[in-house]
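Annex B. Sample input.
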Amino acid sequence: MSVKSGGFSTVSLQMIENDQSHSLIIAATNHIEILDYALFRRFDDIIEYQPPNHAQAAELIQSRLGRFSPRPFPLGTVTTQADGLSYAEIRHAIDDAIKDALMRDAKQIKTDTLTHAFAERRKLSARMTQRKAASYHAGAVPQQA
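Annex B, continued. Sample output.
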C-alpha cells in the first residue's frame, strides 16, 4: 500500500470504523504530515513527543553507549552533535557506531565515529523531510511538474 497515495490512511480509517471489539486502539507515527486529518478525529487523545533536550540526549547517549563509551568522553560535544535528532535517530546513530567498533574488534567507539553517525542520521532525516514535503495524502491534489 503506497503511503504517498494516502492508501495507509484510508486502510487505517476503514479498520477503525469496522472494529467491533472492546479494544484499546493505539497508533503511532513519525510522519504526521502524510496522514489524513480524518484519522485523527477517530482518537480521543493525541500525545505528541518532542525530540530530547540536551540533558535527555546526554542521558540516552551515556546509557546506550555503555562500555563502548570513548575515553576520554567529551559528552557535551557529542551531545551537541545530537541536537534536534529524535530518540530513535540518536539510538540508531549510537548503534551504528557500536557496530563499527565491533567490526574493528574495538572495545570502545571513536568519538569521530559517533559524530559521523549523528551527521549521517541528520542527513537521512533531512532527506526524509524533503520526501514528506513532496508527498501528498488522501484528498490532496498532486502537484504537476
